[in-house]
Amino acid sequence: MSEKTILVWFRNDLRIHDNEILLEAIRKADKILPVYCFDPFYFTKTSTGEPKTGNFRARFLLESVAGLRKNLQAHGAELIVRTGNPAEILPQLCEEYHVNEVYHHREVAYEETNISEQVEESLWKIKLNLKHFIGHTLYHKEDLPFPIKDIPDSFAIFKKKIERDSNVRPCTDTPGEINIPVITDSGEIPTLTQLGLVEPIDDHRANIKFAGGETEALKQLQNFLSNIKQASPKTGKNSGSSSVSSHLSPWITIGCISLRQIYWEVLKTGNFQHNNGPLILELLWRDYFRFMFKKHGQKFIAAKNGDDVSDFAENQDELFDKWKNGTTGTPLVDAIMHELNATGYINNYSRQITAGYLVNTLKVDWTKGASYFEEKLIDYSPASNWGNWAFIAGIGSDPRDNRYFNIARQTGELETKGDFIDTWLCDIAKSLHVSSL
Ligand SMILES: Cc1cc2nc3c(=O)[nH]c(=O)nc-3n(C[C@H](O)[C@H](O)[C@H](O)COP(=O)(O)OP(=O)(O)OC[C@H]3O[C@@H](n4cnc5c(N)ncnc54)[C@H](O)[C@@H]3O)c2cc1C
């Protein structure tokens, strides 16, 4: 009987631990073929002439793919890397390596699912099946206490029902030795220049240097765990830094670390109520936006057309340019935008402030801001970005929860309350010569 080979198409799951498709392929096949495709679509320019993927995120991705290759090699395997349209590359590889089936993790956003559909169609032409797996969330879709179409639009109800009626599954095992076919050409990882980008310049003021890859992600998780162990049980605040943010989002976004891994590791530290509760809540927000994307599809983005354009400022293009360049004249907003442009990362609070300011104070079309974040953020993730923006713009699926709507007012308060502003922001504002806070 001939050997069975399964191609594992890595996308936003660049890890070996808790990776269901990898484990399942190893169980079902004699040999597996791990593949990553750099799809030129993600390195095109947007309608504003800016790169769809900014250079901080692109560098992080290159590092993460290199990290995956290294970790697969440590398991006796190899990662095939190609640059091109996956709908053309995957069938070619399948024919070359006599592949019987292709596995991948299902995505939820329009562009990603569109790519999967194209791949599925092209594989179908050579009579191969693309098997979809559900991953990427803390709670498995099959374990939700409601079908996707009935998921509550209110985050509060979603949270209450999930916490009462669902459980987080344990992590899957990490594979041992991985059998692969003889690979003739594993392919080079492209450089930033080959992707049409320039090397980003690291800003010395950045709080954290994000280095891509599974190994770095697991290291960051350990840093975070030791921080929360030291944090004060009363406040959940850490003696050294202003909060217990994990800074894990860039790794989470492209799957260098699994949410279940984070969840179970965090729970092991005990002290759940005070220090770990906020993190689990944040992970739930991530699930919520992802499931909302699954339920409503393009609604978040299409909502643009439903906006009343008369609500937008007449000179919104000019105001938008000021916002993105950090020249609005509002020191806090300007400092945050300089931080975003210089590092590719700002914390959640800073995102809320700048987004709320663009929407409520400047009266600029929110989708311009969401597109700008899409380009710049090192942790850009379609559902989290567009979902949060839609939420702030008041057109998300859960306007009643009103989590962000008063940001513009709070920004006004912040301007008069220097002591409320993160020291780092004060430092960056001073060193960038924006007027005093
Ligand atoms: C306008 C706007 C745009 C955003 N765009 C993105 C994005 O493109 N990608 C992204 O990962 N997050 C996005 N967020 C959510 C949030 O700002 C980041 O996830 C968070 O700042 C990452 O820092 P952390 O890893 O230290 O988070 P922690 O506080 O440590 O939280 C742990 C994890 O929970 C998830 N999470 C936390 N807050 C949220 C939230 N509000 N919505 C969804 N998931 C959340 C992230 O995966 C995060 O890594 C956005 C928020 C706003 C307000």
Characterize the structure shown:
The structure is a single chain. The protein has about 425 residues and is of the alpha/beta class. The protein has 17 helices and five strands. β4 (about 100-105), α4 and β5 form a beta-alpha-beta unit. Mean pLDDT is about 85; it is low at about 235-240, about 400-425 and about 425-435. The chain has three domains: about 5-135, Rossmann fold (3-Layer(aba) Sandwich), CATH 3.40.50.620; about 135-170 and about 215-295, Alpha Horseshoe (Serine Threonine Protein Phosphatase 5, Tetratricopeptide repeat); about 305-430, Orthogonal Bundle (DNA Cyclobutane Dipyrimidine Photolyase, subunit A, domain 3), CATH 1.10.579. A five-stranded parallel sheet has the order 3-2-1-4-5, sandwiched between helices. It is globular and about 70 Å long. Bound molecules: flavin-adenine dinucleotide. Flavin-adenine dinucleotide binds next to α7, α9, α13 and α15.
Spatial arrangement of strands, main beta sheet: 3-2-1-4-5
CATH architecture of the largest domain: 3-Layer(aba) Sandwich
Number of helices: 17
Number of strands: 5
Can you identify the CATH class of the largest domain?
Alpha Beta
CATH fold field value of the largest domain: Rossmann fold
Query: What is the H/E order?
Result: EHEHEHEHEHHHHHHHHHHHHH
